[in-house]
Each structure stands twice: as structure tokens, then as C-alpha cells.
Amino acid sequence: VKSEGPKLVPFFKATCVYFVLWLPTSSPSWFSALIKCLPIFCLWVFLLAHGINFLVSHRSASRILAGLIFSAVGDAFLIWQEQGYFIHGLLMFAITHILYSSAFGMKPLDLKAGLLMGLVSGSCYAFLYSYLSGPFTYLVAVYIALIGFMGWRAVAGMQLCNDLWTWTKLSACVGAMLFMVSDLTIALNKFCFPVPYSRFIIMATYYAAQMLIALSAVETRDEEDFRKRS
């Protein structure tokens, strides 16, 4: 934490700028898109600070960086969601979840965690279903399946029962759960009913989720370097 913390200072500052300015969503602009995406840009810098060679040689870290890039594009699209770009943003974040799932890997499998995440995802979609219409009936189903799968891979990697967990695996797990909370809040607020303080809940959980997932990339370096020394 001591070694990685200073690299996250720009992210924390950019996040504070977003919440201090709190630009109105009713008047989207390239400036508001920049302010919204700035914390994610800082997470790009956080990963790049570990070196290009690190990213090239560690696929999980490079996939998380790619996920952050697609996230920033999705954020920009969502600035103009009322102008018809919500589906574009949905697609960008769907790609993000595929990249994160790939970064977390398929080992260990942990079918119990998969069943639990499947039940949670299925319950969320069952609740949303009656509020959905048109293409969103299918698009939301696919999106929930993808983020649920990403959550499963993050939870499965923690291995609490085997005492094999690390703080970076825990950060990936918590980050995935916060991402699900953020997206569920978006869905409830957009399709079902107004959620009090929805924007604050969505963005606070989203930025925290992205930071924790970016932090989980550090584990890739530690684990693989350990294997090489062994």
C-alpha cells in the first residue's frame, strides 16, 4: 500500500475535482466529459507508471488497462445519453467487463461462487424485466450476464477458504461488487424509479470500483515475479 499509494494521488485529486465542480448533467459538454473521465485517465497513468514492459509482459495488467480505456469512452458516451448515446456507453462497458473477466482468469473455477453470482444477477434482471421494453429487454440481460460473470471471476480469485487471498485479490473482489452496485443504481434510476442521490451513489461506487480493480493489477506482477524466483 505504501508503494502504490503515492501513484494514486492524481486519481484522488481528479475525483475530488469531479465532486467539487459537480457539473450539471442537463448541459453535456466536452469539458464535463473531460472532468468525468479524468479520474479514469489517472488510473491509466497509475498502471503506466509500473512500466510499459510490465504491461506488455503481464497480460492481466494490460487487459485491465484496456478495460479502463473502454470505460473512459463509455463515460464520454454516457455524458450524452439523453441524446441517444446510452446504448453506445452500454456497449463500451460490456467490453470492459469482458476484459476484466479475462484479466481475473478462470482459475480457480469455484462453481459455488458462480452459482451465487448467477442467482444475484438473475434476481436483478427478474426485478428489472417488467420495466424494460424494446431492445433494452435483451441488451440489459446480456449486460447483467457479463457483469455477473466478471463478479464471479473476481470473487472466485479471492479463495478465502484456502487462506490464499491477498489484499489485491480482495480489492478486485470489492471493486467488482461496487461496480455491480453502481450499474444496478443506474438501471434502477433509468428504467424503474428515481433513486435518491443516485448520481452520487453511482459515481462514488464507480470510481472506487475502478481504483480497486486497477490496484488488483499489482498482484499480477507480485505473483509472477514470485513464480520466476521459485
In words, what does this structure look like?
- By secondary structure, the chain is an all-alpha fold.
- It has one domain (4-229).
- 77% of the residues lie in helices and 0% in strands.
- The chain contains nine helices and no strands.
- Helix 2 (30-48) packs antiparallel against helix 4 and helix 4 packs antiparallel against helix 9 (198-229).
- The longest helix is centred in the C-terminal third of the chain and has 32 residues, at 198-229.
- The chain is globular and about 40 Å long.
- The two termini are 24 Å apart.
- Residues 220-230 have low confidence and may be disordered.
- Its EC number is 3.3.2.2.
- Keywords: Membrane, Transmembrane, Transmembrane helix.
- GO terms for molecular function: alkenylglycerophosphocholine hydrolase activity.
- It is found in: Membrane.
- It catalyses: a 1-O-(1Z-alkenyl)-sn-glycero-3-phosphoethanolamine + H2O = a 2,3-saturated aldehyde + sn-glycero-3-phosphoethanolamine; a 1-O-(1Z-alkenyl)-sn-glycero-3-phosphocholine + H2O = a 2,3-saturated aldehyde + sn-glycerol 3-phosphocholine.
Q: In sequence order, what are the helices and strands, one letter per element?
A: HHHHHHHHH
Q: Classify the oligomer.
A: single chain
Which structural category fits the helices and strands?
Answer: mainly alpha
Helix content: over 70%
Radius of gyration: 18 Å
Fraction in beta strands: under 5%
State the end-to-end distance: 24 Å
pLDDT under 50 segments (min length 5)?
220-230
The coarse overall form would be globular
- The helix count comes to 9
Domains (count): 1
Secondary structure tally: strands:
0
Average the pLDDT over all residues and give the rounded result. 92
Taking the sheet with the most strands, its summary is: none
